[in-house]
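Blackboard transcription, Thursday session:
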Amino acid sequence: MRNTTARGILREMFLSESTPRGIALAIALGVAIGVIPKANLVALLFLTILFVTRTNLVAGLVAIVAATLCAGNFDVIFHGIGGSVLTISWLQGVYRWLFTLPIVPWTGLDNTVVVGGLVVGLLQLVPTYLLVRRLCKRQLAAWQMTYEDAVPE
Amino acid sequence: MKLLKSRLTLLGLALGLLVLATNAFIHRSIVRSGQAVTGAKIEVGRIRTSWRSARIELDHVQAADPQRSMRNLFEADRIVLDLDPGAILHRRFVVNRGQVHGIRVGTRRSTPGALDSDHETLAKETAVPSFGDEGMRWFDEVTHALQQDIGTPATSREFADKMQTKWPTQCSALVAEAVALQKRLASTERSITQAGDNPLRNLTSYQSAVGSLDTFTKELFEIRGKIDRQQQQLLMEHEQLQAAVKSDEVLMQLQHELPALDGESLGKYLLADEISTDVRSVVEWLRWGRQFIPALYTHSVPGAGRGQNVIFGGCKPQPNILLKTMVLSGCGDVEGDRFTLEGTVTNLSSNPAINEHPTELVVQTTGSVQTAIHAVMDSRGEHSKDRIYIKCPRWIQPERQWGNPEHLSFIASGGESQLSILLDVTDHSQLSGEISMRQMAIRLTPRLNDRLTVQPIPTLLAEAAQKVERLDVSVKISGSLEFPKWELRSNFGTQLAKHLHETFQKAVVEQHAQAMAQQRQATTSAVEQLVQSVTNEHQQIAKQLEGGDDRLQSIHAHIAERVRQNDGVVQPNSPLREVYRR
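(Written on the board underneath:)
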């Protein structure tokens, strides 16, 4: 009985939300988390969003692993983007004020790669979500048609 | 809602595990960063973290010595770090006060502390000047001077030889002259005696005798004059010989004056190995300690992992890790001598270039090893300046060997000594400073190679070495950490050289004086014998000449008696004499 309950909870956690919307959101968030270095509060915030929203965790975790493995190759690009953002002169006052607040330094937003990764992660959220949702819908439709053809009348 | 609950539970579990893993994370961080710094194993027994009181406690910490794998650099029973909670919220680890209890230095390890990594020791890289065995040349000369035959003094010997050849000849000539005169006198006397009482019958004989009287008198006078002159000449030459002997002695002394032994070279020859080892060791420690000090501050500093952490305009950069005060207490031992240790480290930071205050270390040891260490490391600004001052008023030196055992070496006795080290490192690598060491009572025992074991060299060396009573060594250090240079200044070399020179010179002089005295004795005794012999000869001649006088007197008397004119006939300018002569 207890095993059945635990299995149910695990299934609920990881395999629920297998809709195109849930999978697309999980992959978009997973890629965003993957491209950001992990030892900071920004990554933790994105992870929390992944966990608390209606997303497919398996898809999200796979996306995190895949994006993390690839992200190292793009550090130069992230560093360039982050450096440009962090050296915008008219934002220096804001940054300075932010970094005098407690906890904020733990976000790692003074790091070029974190900021570069965050920018890239945010920018890819919507296109990735839309693209993956569309692909998922098409695939689901294809699977549905195959299933209907296979069932005898 | 059900989904949210289960997800939040999972997230909570993950965060809980993360918090529980904090100790393991801190443990791993300390071990990894410590090993990166020391290049040897760091072991931490247990870590307790209290987030409520912002305290980290580490039990039984061991840091292995990278140079000696079975020894620890230090071992501490307990390290307590009181963190500043406010600084943690700003992603900074500030230790307001740390305490290291039961610190022990140089303890033994049960397992090797070396890492498998290719952490190279710096000893091989350090360039230290080397010295040759210049001092041995001096010993070769001394040995030669002590062992060579000094020979005979040239001038006096030649002079003596000349006298030995000349005087017997001259004496013989004079004797021959005297004998000839005696014969002629005897002949004249005989002819007058045989002429009978009537002088007119043998007028020719009388004429001849009267005519020879002047010649005989003159010749007798000349021979006596020659004897006098020869005596004077002999005495003069004897004096000249003595002067020549003295002159030869002075010349020989000058010839056997030992060359001055270069004390500086001797000191370097004997002390170079030990000093270079000490200097290398000090420089290695400095380099080892400094190679992990971050470089000058820049507005963009490397992040912990990827990218760079930007310092925003107007923000005052602060080091991520700062240890404001760390109190040290413990004990240790050096070569079996135990000491207790008290000290403080202040303002130790991960980025000293941007720290407000320079890092300062003050350590005081008491017991068998009394040491005061004061180090100030200031990397602020463009020109860094580190100053390390170590003073040991009481340091027990072990027995050690100086020099090359294959040539000449000395065993220096151990004993109480004073040591002070003052080093400045500017601009991150420029080195300057001085190491001074004084050993108040020292006893040197020479160790010789086969070449120097011939007596009296070992005895003389031991005698000279015993006169060295104190050791003062000063090493001036310059150059850079990569290529240190050093210059040795010591009273040891000059002191030992002076005593060696004096002792050996005395021995050489004594040996040569003895030989010279023998030579002088031989020369002068031979010449004195010659003088005595010549004088005897002269006396013999003089005695013979007295006989000649008697004969001449007899001839006078005989003629005077015959002509009844007593002495008138033989008086000079006598008219009668002129008659006889005609």
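Lecturer's comment: Chain A is about 75% helix and 0% strand.
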